[in-house]
Design a protein that fits this description.
- It is built from three helices and five strands, in the order E-H-E-E-H-E-H-E.
- The relative contact order is 0.21.
- The protein has a single domain, classed as Glycogen Phosphorylase B (Rossmann fold, 3-Layer(aba) Sandwich), CATH 3.40.50.2000.
- By secondary structure, the chain is α/β, with parallel strands linked by helices.
- The longest helix is centred in the middle third of the chain and has 19 residues.
């Protein structure tokens, strides 16, 4: 079974395209990991979302207060790198402009990984 990472600095529940992709990849026998911002301290207005049976949400660890957004973003970037080296995904899809930095960094560290960048901005 191939692994695929969907990476977003935000709550994946708010992105219908990401939900659809995770369900599609999960039904196509991919093991899907969604690496996302840890939003556990915020109010959950959406509730439970089905991302697919082979999908696992991986939220980055919070070592500091949520008020230190730039530091949490740096921690998130290192978390992505550690997960890529530990789980060895075949494909990585980065969403939104905060992930653009990661595409370049990952390609320098790991040459044989397929990266895709998708932006939700209009």
């Amino acid at each position: 079974m191939k692994n695929i990472f969907l990476v977003i600095w935000g709550d994946p529940k708010f992105y219908q395209t990401l939900i659809f992709l995770s369900k599609k990849f999960s039904s196509d026998k991919f093991k899907v990991f969604i690496l996302c911002r840890n939003t556990d301290s915020t109010k959950d207005i959406i509730g439970k979302v089905n991302f697919g049976k082979n999908t696992k949400l991986l939220k980055h660890p919070i070592f500091l207060s949520y008020n230190f957004n730039i530091l949490n973003y740096i921690i998130f970037n290192f978390y992505i790198i550690s997960q890529i080296f530990s789980k060895k995904p075949d494909y990585v899809i980065f969403f939104n402009h905060k992930s653009l930095f990661n595409v370049l960094f990952i390609k320098m560290l790991k040459k044989k990984i397929n990266c895709i960048y998708h932006n939700f901005d209009f």
